[in-house]
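Hi Y.,

Following your request, here is the sequence exactly as I used it, all 306 residues.
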Amino acid sequence: DNAGITVGAEIVALAGVPIADWIGANVPVTSPFSTDHVRRLQQQIYAVRFPVGMDVEVTFISDGREVTTTLTADFEFESYDFANASAATDGYELPVEFELLDNGFVVARVWSFFDNDLLTIQLWERMIAAVKNNDARGLIIDMRVNGGGSGFLADQMAAYFFDEELVLGGTARYDDSTGTFFLDTNRLQKFYPPPEELRYDGSVAVLVGANCASACEFFAYDMSLEGRAIIVGETPTAGMGGGITDFAMPDDLFVRFTVGRAVDADGNIHIEGIGVVPDIVVPVTEESVLDGADTVLNAAIEALGG
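Below is the corresponding structure, written out as tokens. Let me know if you'd prefer a different format.
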């Protein structure tokens, strides 16, 4: 503020380097990434972070004038948390929360698949019962801030929107003896629909983004099958579809890395390096950012006929 960089100002250079080049050369500490869109978002986040106390030359345009000033890096995490969507949670959330909008649609937010399985399913069934009993116009499931968890739980929660068992895919594992990946077709993942009174057959939209990862992506993928839901987002999901394992190391350390290649029912890689791509891609524009409206939610409402 003191330097005249107000909301809506355009930063055109950092340290004398054009902003696009500066961002493109940035190597975030959160590297590596499964997809280019996640890499680019993280590059943007880290491009404006410097060692505390460092002086940085910033060139920006405000009110039609180009200005160059020097700022000193300070210690703060508010902007970092906001950019990474951490600001959306405070740690007191239930695994499933839902609300009725004034327009008659229900928005359900699934914060993770890490929580207690029984509690998560009880809340899930309570939400579906409320949607059905009150004749909601449709259901919007917000998965934009969901870091994953139990893939089995994610699959079975998606089953509440289908009437028949469905083969979802499996995990191919590398075989040293053959030098190829082997998929055991006897261990393919399926989901099993609950009793009919617990199923929901109304209109559904699923909101996704780069912070929807791992099990969250499997849920979103499941809901895309047979056109069951409209997938809406600014970007695809994170593209982290591989199975992981923790390996015990000396001194109570653990190393975690991917050990399985997740594939669809036909054996094709469907999430890793790709993500679940929205049916409706909502553009990020200067106007939408400055307006502060939830354009993804609004696009889903419109797609459902709201």
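The chain has a mean pLDDT of 94.

Thanks again,
Q.
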